[in-house]
Amino acid sequence: MVEEFDVLIVGAGISGVGGAFHLKTQRPNTKFIVIEALDSFGGTWWSHRYPGIRSDSDLHTFGYRFKPWTGPPIATADEILNYMSEVITENELGNHIRYNRKIVSANWSSLEKRWEVTAKLTEGGEEEHFKIKFLWMCQGYYRHQEGYMPKWPDVEKYQGELVHSEAWPEELDYEDKEVIVIGSGATAATIIPAMASDCKHITMLQRSPTYFRPGRNQIELAETLRELNIDEEWIHEIVRRKILYDQEIFSKRTFEEPEKVKEELIEGVKSLLPAEFDVETHFTPKYRPWRQRLAYVPDGDLFQGISEGKASVITDEIEAFTKEGILLKSQQEVKADIIVSATGFNMNVMGDIDFQIDDKSVDFSDTVTYRGMMFTGIPNMLWIFGYFRASWTLRVDLLSDFVCRLLNHMEDIGASCVEVALRDEDKNMELLTWMDSYNFNPGYLLRATSILPKRGDKAEWQHTQDYWREKDEIPAINLNASEFNYR
Ligand SMILES: Cc1cc2nc3c(=O)[nH]c(=O)nc-3n(C[C@H](O)[C@H](O)[C@H](O)COP(=O)(O)OP(=O)(O)OC[C@H]3O[C@@H](n4cnc5c(N)ncnc54)[C@H](O)[C@@H]3O)c2cc1C
User: Fold this and answer.
1) What DSSP line would sit under 345-402, residue for residue?
2) Is the CB of 37 under 6 A from ligand 1?
3) pLDDT tens digit string along 351-384?
4) For atom 22 of ligand 1, which residue has the closest CA?
């Protein structure tokens, strides 16, 4: 049996659920389905189970623009899942979502102007077949089944427990255990304070330091507005505007006066640590602020653990694993009962789906991206890839409006196919890697450069990662411009 839908949304994470909401409210007659590989909604917030899992950006902007966030700005995964559950229930999205099936292939038929999509049930492997007019990729950007673990020498000699933050064993008992967490990003900064009071001691082992932004897990403006009995809808909107205003200024400053911002960030950390702590070695990064995601540390909990002696930091490289722990390049051996690898994830392109156009395989690295959402040579498809310097979800709302506008436009002009193509003036444009590594260079992006689509040097042909520019540019996109070809 082949089922037919106007739109198929791949993934029921924050992007897919947001997309479903906008499609249902802005285009109520669209027949759509959401296909999700996991057994529930939430994506990142469902698949990550490590202790303390929480957002690192505020929920007024990570939450959707259409549903007020009423809790503290930094939220746990459970709180985010509850919020998403309310969105699904309140808007009757549940009967559009099918879980436990993975999209494995998508073949565009030029003749039928349809995507022929195959999903495989995760249990039993039975196949489902769909014909789809428009494919909306909300599959995120990394593999949920596996994390990235570097190939450390002699790792097999280690006799303790080695776990990855992305595959947390539910029954892991760390009470009174010596623990090492390898990594220095937001994940390590979350796991360490969450485990510190239960284990014997926890050590953050990092190759190089990261910037952290400690602050209270409370927004004063929101609290004041609540005391004044202002409606939550208003509070949500006002607080969003205030946060985005402040973030724009901060983001600009990281480019205009990086040294000053660096100094301020390091001072913020220093003020939470004992006077004798070696901040220069452990919390003074070598890169410009915002070149990697800046992690917010609510109530400075990471630094509290360090100050109280429950947690410590080692900045060194791993020479090899030993029977009892890790031998560092400095020749110090650190022993541990449990080693947590908080070393990030493996990016994938388009959910590891075998894409074809008229039965010919697609290599996304041969395509050029239109604003980080569409791709040359790939008809009727859009991908939501959010922001790094602002909340991901801001782009979900923006691109959802765009998808609905594009579908309305196609209906108006009687087109069943839209494709982006380089214009005459773009033909000699230099093609560059997906992300400018001077602008933003986390390890997972650098490792995936060869599989990602290309970017040009004009705003139309790249993901600028600039919400403040896109919030005006995307709604103003001229759908009759020559980069859009309709059939
Ligand atoms: C631990 C962690 C914390 C983060 N914190 C923040 C934060 O605080 N703020 C922020 O802005 N960003 C944060 N991010 C980035 C985060 O991933 C995004 O903000 C956001 O959650 C991504 O949502 P998404 O729906 O696009 O993708 P995902 O959350 O990755 O969800 C995609 C869904 O698609 C499904 N899927 C994928 N491929 C297929 C397929 N072939 N068939 C069927 N289903 C498929 C997956 O199973 C998954 O459920 C964080 C990331 C991580 C890993």
Assistant:
1) EEE-SGGG-EEEETTEE--GGGSBEETTTEETT--SEEE----SSS-HHHHHHHHHHH
2) yes
3) 999 999 999 999 999 999 999 999 999 999 999 9
4) 140
